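Researcher: Here's my situation. A collaborator sent me these components and asked whether they could plausibly form a single complex. I don't have experimental data yet, so a predicted model of the whole assembly would be a useful starting point for our discussion.
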Amino acid sequence: MSDPAGSGAVGVVLVSHSRDVADAVARLAVALSGGTGGRLVAAAGGAGDGGIGTSSELIVAAARRVDRGAGVVVVADLGSAVLTVRALIVDEEDEDPGGSSGEGTLPPGTRLVDAPFLEGAVAAVVTAGAGAPLDDVVRAAEDAYTYRKL
Amino acid sequence: MAELDTGFFVRWLTRTASAVDREADRLTELDAVIGDADHGSNLRRGFTAVTAALAEKPPPSPGAALGLAGRTLVSKVGGASGPLYGTLLRRAGKELGDAATVSRDDLARALTAGVEAVSALGGAAEGDKTMLDALLPAARALPESFTAARRAATEGAVGTVPLRARRGRASYLGDRSIGHEDPGAASALVLVAALEQTWEAADE
């Protein structure tokens, strides 16, 4: 691929209870990727009204924004952020009786990674920015748990 | 056994919405002690949206009513109760399929599947001081009667008081979570009590 951070690259969505945290971690990750991850990452922080919380609408919109057909990796912080993403992923696999769940669902192949938020975000954005495929981006983010500090 | 139709399910969900609205302050107060003081307001926002969605797009079947309510809760709540209650209702709705009417036994089976999905989503088990402590006994008792289910949910919710939280924000408190009713179990009781009331109102 001539443009590793362009079409066909894996997208990364950062879901935090706080808009400030999600935006700041996204900026940090892009900076540490040498700028290559800039167009691949989207932050979905806070509740829809800008307060502390989780918004499935912001998460879905962010995932669609960074989806280039190569998959989307979601890194989430805690509690409802994790549960909301997991419920949305089940949503994408399931259809309810009497009505599709098409609107408001994540792009196909979206994966929630089991990773610490900041370290996982940096690892995912750096590897996605280098043009790595979905499995490698997931593995890099999940490996972040093994970076010991002592 | 009398069959439950789509209207019954819509009345159950709207009755739940009214009860959540009335109980929201109490749920938030319970949550303020061991959680983050948003349970009542989050559920109120979610169930207000459920009532609106049911009115705007009348569901064609009991399963569709639960599915629509569940999807609405996932998208509107903004706290952990959204994906948890949303998963409960969506999974139960899926279990009911497209049937125009269902029996109480069908509903018991569907709720059991829903509760299992909640357990898988949140990783909690009975005794962890969560909504499951009211929902699991209620689903087990529902084949007997709606009243038995509500009684079981009541006992389950009250039974969370001496438990130590093992899931969610309250789990960070460790032993300090002991002695307080779990807000999720309290709101689960609201849902089950509304089911009993809907049945009694239909029976009159």
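Model: Some features of this prediction you could bring to your collaborator: Residues 11-144 of chain A form a domain with the Rossmann fold fold (CATH 3.40.50.510). Chain A has a mean pLDDT of 89.
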